[in-house]
């Protein structure tokens, strides 16, 4: 899932590295310099909330005609909104908070962006430079706190450094393997008088991402591809970050090899394409998981062999040679040794691979995958993704999500929270285009969906944005619906309401003898409040209406299409639909944590029969 160089749709203006004529000097405060710098790097939207240490920056922000500020209700919402904006647009997302608790509330979204390689710049206020280290009011060492979860971070104590640091932060965040960069600015640096010139001279002597792959490694990879009998293209989120989806399609069709796309890569290769096997991993399709297990060659492109894909690592893909291409050399060999390591940007790697494979074909070396596709097709047809309708006539959560996908307008962006609804959204919505699926893959952050959808809609206002959320996730960050209502950001939210922390409940069902400890959300302990059992607390429709949204509820299968159509027809306000679904639905297929992918279960008590005993 390693996510690689952006090549963004809307490239950020780049500061100079020396030798160019400077613009005229302006006499400003450090705060004015900060806002001018954000304007010059092309930031058009900032999600944030003011407080004492960052307050000097909010005064000139009021005068900016180029930077829109969205006042959130919680700093975590600001961070996830900036991430959703970045994932939907390809641009750097920006969030802003004050010192102390404001800054520490950004830690979760920063960690989330770090795990998913999202280009993010987080700007925080800090106490005055002379007070740093004294445990001053609202002081927190946010640079120290975030050092393990940022690509880089800065502490700025001099006003004159602000333009250079902002330029460097955006450059670092958006190049190489993207990631979050924190800029912590002391209050006195924001208040001090300084001069502003643009572009500044960047000083990053140790930062030289390698984007062009080595030709010898490309040739070796092409030879393995054409010599293989059972190859698989294992595609991660790096292909999306590198804007390499067109090149990937060419490579796949040229080789005829099957394609699997990770949770972070959905949309990188069309779900509808005949070469696509689906998503690998813990809840991946049987065909995708099994293809990797039985492959003799895995070509990993912008993916990182994470535990959710590999299962028990020492039993993963035992017969496969590995070609591993990644922008981040630290990922290669980290979890699985690579026979052919390739460091480079996914777009350049795949483009070069296409040429090298074409050369192999011209020399008469072409892979024959006929027998392989016979097996793959049998697994795909025998164990398709599917679900059972509840016997009591209640709503199936899978059916709800599937119909939302089928009835959504062309180009709809879907953001998901974390848990069962996330996996169902990955399975039952068809993703044929990049940047239409946003989720928290690496960190698995509950509460991601609503603010991420808000950020995506702010960045792509012409596109419909649906947040597919669980009732547990929704209760963590739903206050940002107020932000949406007040800022004309009309997202749509589907609450998959099963009254429980669904994925945790599924594990309790399967592994803890149905002892449902602290996973029921809609009732308290019976001996404390017996009347509460079975009631809806909170009432999501009333809650949504109180925040300025349209609130709808759907409880019966026969009402499903009508309610979804109503939600799709409302575009002047946020819409929240409370879908009351069956509580016992489970996510299948499943590989239990810590077990081998060979032990995949297609459904409860259903172990696939692959009809072979071969070990080669």
Give a verbal description of the structure.
By secondary structure, the chain is an alpha/beta fold. 34% of the residues lie in helices and 15% in strands. The strands form 4 sheets. A 6-stranded parallel beta sheet has the order 3-2-4-5-7-6, with helices on both faces. The protein has a 6-stranded parallel beta sheet with strand order 11-10-9-12-13-14, sandwiched between helices. The protein has a 6-stranded parallel beta sheet with strand order 16-15-17-18-20-19, sandwiched between helices. α3 crosses α18, α11 packs parallel to α14 and α16 packs across α23. It is globular and about 75 Å long.
Outline:
This protein is 34% helix and 15% strand. With 616 residues, the chain is α/β, with parallel strands linked by helices.
Fraction of helical residues? 25-40%
Number of helices, counting only DSSP H or I runs of 4 residues or more: 23
Assess the beta-strand content as a share of residues: 15-25%
Low-confidence stretches: 1-11
Q: What form results from the Cα inertia axes?
A: globular
Which helices and strands occur, and which strands form pairs?
Layout: E1 26-29, H1 30-40, E2 45-48, H2 55-61, E3 68-71, H3 75-89, E4 93-97, H4 101-104, H5 107-115, E5 120-126, H6 142-146, E6 152-156, H7 162-174, E7 180-186, H8 187-191, E8 193-196, H9 215-227, E9 231-235, H10 238-241, H11 245-255, E10 259-261, E11 276-278, H12 286-294, E12 297-301, H13 307-310, E13 321-326, E14 340-343, H14 346-362, H15 370-382, H16 397-407, E15 413-416, H17 420-428, E16 437-438, H18 449-459, E17 465-470, H19 471-477, H20 480-486, E18 492-497, H21 502-511, H22 540-546, E19 550-554, H23 560-569, E20 575-580
Parallel strand pairs: 2-3, 2-4, 4-5, 5-7, 6-7, 9-10, 9-12, 10-11, 12-13, 13-14, 15-16, 15-17, 17-18, 18-20, 19-20
Antiparallel strand pairs: 1-8
